[in-house]
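Researcher: I'd like a structural prediction for the single chain below. Treat it as a standalone chain; there are no partners to consider.
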Amino acid sequence: MSMLTIKVENPGSLNVVMGHVPLSKNLEQIHDALKDVGFGLAFKQDSHEPATQAGTDLSLVDLARRNVDRVDVSQTFFLVTRTTVAKDVLQRLKKVPAIQAIYCATSSNNVEIIVRENSSGRGVMGLTGNYSNAQC
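Model: Treating it as a single chain, here is the predicted structure.
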């Protein structure tokens, strides 16, 4: 067993949300909730597999994919927006029934994800840094 600390990449202090959703088909619900907001979304169904991507802004999609690939935990997603009203984005996400947890929502570039890795896979153990934690 090992513990890893992975820094969230967030140049320019964009709004970054990390959460847990069980299936890639649930990304459609997230996409529908944010269709009028510029965003990038990436999801890992299984660790060590390519991420599923969606969004309206290719640079944000790429940033979300890089973060989800670095953390590499099954059934996690990263969402990145430029919107200045992060609370509005969180309220929309809380209405998506498939989202089981939101681990962090931040505009800080100083957040690290603590990941535990063993023979069964990887899991999120916690976070450090400047973030707000909101459970769905």
